[in-house]
Each structure stands twice: as C-alpha cells, then as structure tokens.
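User: Can you help me understand a structure? I only have the sequence.
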Amino acid sequence: MKNKKEYLSLDTFSFLANLGWVLTFLKASGVITQLPWHTVLDYWLCLLAVSVILGSLSALIGLGFKGGDK
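Assistant: Let's start by predicting it. Here is the structure, written out as tokens:
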C-alpha cells in the first residue's frame, strides 16, 4: 500500500491575478469606494510588467541553455 502525500500547491501568479479580479469586481460593484480606478489599473499594469519580464527572462535563458539533450 502506497502512502499518498498531498501537498497544497499555490501558484503565486494565479493568486495575484485572482486578487486583481476580486479587486476589480469589488470596485465596479461599489463595495470599495475610497479606492480610485487608477490604483486598480496600476495593479494590473504592474502584474503585466512582471509577467512580461519573467517571460522574457525565461525565454532568454531557454535560448542560452539547452537542457535535456544527451
């Protein structure tokens, strides 16, 4: 009999994207009124910038190093 170990896996980018959607919906529905719309837009733009930078870095690293070839 095998022991099954289940671990909680949390994808950071998915968590931040979901948090952005919650923030957008709460602002659109009027629940959070003191937060300006440009702050919500800044959040999305920062998330986009991080994803573009990390995607570009992984593409450059992937071009520079070939892994798995024998």
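Now, to help you interpret it: The chain has a mean pLDDT of 83. Residues 62 and 70 are 16 Å apart (CA to CA). Let me know which part you'd like to focus on.
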